[in-house]
Amino acid sequence: MSFEISAFPAFVGVAMDRLEYSNKDGASSRMTSPSRSSKCFRRKLHSKAKKARWVAKDGSPGEFAPIDFHQPSIDSSRGWDKNRSKLQASSASSSSLASPSSSYVKLGASDLYVSEIGCGTLAFGDPRHGYGTTVTEDDLRQTCRFLVNHGVNWFDSAEVYGYQNIQNNCSSEALVGKFIREANEERGKVRQLESQFGKPTQDEILFASKFFPVPWTNILIGGNVRFGKQAVLDALDASIRRSGLDHIDLYQLHFPFPYVGGFDALTTALAEAYEKGLIKAVGVSNYKEQDLRKIHRMLSRLGVPLASNQIKYSIVDRDAELEGLLEVCKELNVKPIAHSPLERGLLSNRALEMPDDQLNPTERDLRNKYKPLLNLMKFIGAVNGNRTISQVALNYVICKGLIPIPGMKHEGHARECVGAMDWRLDSSSLDALDEKSLFLSKL
Length: 443
Description:
By secondary structure, the chain is an alpha/beta fold.
């Protein structure tokens, strides 16, 4: 099995004065090589914990209550203030879920504005990820509807996602396009991509997809062997037709495979599609510094801004940060997008609490290696509005300047992920998480 985020049983209503800044096994879980900043962090968190005593539903302190994913995950007698700086009593009902007015961020040098979390749709239509057995089309529809209603305005797909169901019109592109059309119809509006200043209204839902540059991609999805400029345009046209939409907002090169025809064929095709309005922005995926600079330069000469670079990044995989790729993205005004921000469910309360005998040896070793970090994230989440480990993991990525796109298949996934928006970890928490993750990654 693999770790997957799910509506796992967890506990809220923790008596904060009982929490220790260590794991249950004692010294091995404390901050390693504590610096002055981490000592200050411990003092700050313990001070915060003493002030933030949670009570159970029956009013008694120190009780535990399971999360109900159909209810807000913060106790209704408490609220988290607008700046997320302290807990405050509130007479009104409150929730950790993001409001529909979630802030948008500009996607690099493009004119698109996207929510600070997007939805990854790798599993949509894919039998290997449970589609048709544990996941139905209606499950995915409800997931997307929940996300849109809580401020998430974009969905990331690819022409090869769910390719097994292309003939059934149930590939990822087909399903996402269908859900976007349904959402627009429900709202009674068409998409308004040319609104004032290019900033979308709440009703605009953006569709992202990717071009697979391997010549024999036709074996998976049909069409001809891929080479040259026309193959890119043909693939784009096929993606648009599958989605049922009239264009693609963000069209990305899936990875820097040595394309037959070279970068010239890729960039001239993208520039033509951009000029015709078939795509609103151009992005790349899994590009390192050298290739990123090259395609940025070539697109710039054609008058096309490079909007984004989708890369693997999480709190336990910070190579893009440590190797300087994030700085390059910042220099070029290319927005980094983080796929796999939850490491296939490793960064979750469910993974922390799962018995060893339910994990294969690789999963068990990985979970146990990062157990001190997971416990630290659980504690930090508790003093930041009772957030889950997954919410802390996603917010960490946002604080690093990336847009995470966790995969979601059920409404419970969506409900948890939107709880990572519209708040921020403070600098002390980020420093402690940086230090712990870096130490454990070297073990």
